């Protein structure tokens, strides 16, 4: 009996390429690359891959699960190929009515190469132009900065956090969410500030990370820190609180509102925190800082602030920098006065103190 020419034909992934990265249908020989990807700690931490993940599961993923998504018109998944090797998977999960959810995961070997950004640009262009999509939504576990930055680079908004939304191995985790519409340009819509490593005069500024958490906890539990900054660091200040300081530093940059650093000496041990917040691009930001108890009295904060002010002038293009310091905090006032800040006024009862009282804030300004 002849085939019915009107019978529906199972769909398969088309081949898309920009000359550097290729999106294509999954093949059986992708199983090894998929298996390697799913052994990676970052893949296990941020995705729903089963743990442990076997080679048999990888075979099923590339030969059954991904092809079936096309047959069902449920998920349009592509293998990413870069320099002749499997580099990961990207997909659009069909939500109907011109909507889809984007998903992506990379093999460790291509991280930092730009391959996945290229892959997502190909995928989104195909989805909007060939599939008629109107809106694509992005979800990620809260804290997955690599996913968020990649989504930002290809044009997704950041629309906030949804509590206990994404399932992962029996838990509901907090989720980040954003969207991209077909009439929006495929590029960043906001500023994501860099946090470069700076060095000079025996001091170093670098991005904060997990290794700094113990030192942050020590500093933010110290009575002298709390005497002047208790409104910033409620007690008890735990390891989770310390990780929150690290995360807040990244959030500040991701939102374009400021940049903060770990202050270190030549030993790379965190000796303080310093940075700019409340940033108005090209105009002004506020300077803030504290020193770890073991680093006080060495002039480290003053030298670190001088480095940061050069960055504010030369890289951030700021015209002036402000500082607000509790009246009575002579050590902190000495830092900005040494750097040439001018005392311009007082904010009455501007700060909460550890004992429940409020104190005035001295206002300083420096033209750059």
From TrEMBL:
One of its GO terms (cellular component) is cytoplasm. The keyword Lyase does not apply. Residues 21-183, 203-368 form the N-acetyltransferase domain. It holds the Pfam family Acetyltransf_3. It comes from the Bacteria. InterPro entries: Acyl_CoA_acyltransferase, GNAT_dom, Ribosomal_N-acetyltransferase. PROSITE patterns: GNAT. Gene3D superfamilies: 3.40.630.30. Keywords: Transferase. GO terms for molecular function: protein N-terminal-serine acetyltransferase activity; protein-N-terminal-alanine acetyltransferase activity. PANTHER family: ACETYLTRANSFERASE (PTHR43441:SF10), RIBOSOMAL-PROTEIN-SERINE ACETYLTRANSFERASE (PTHR43441). This is GNAT family N-acetyltransferase. It comes from Nocardioides luti.
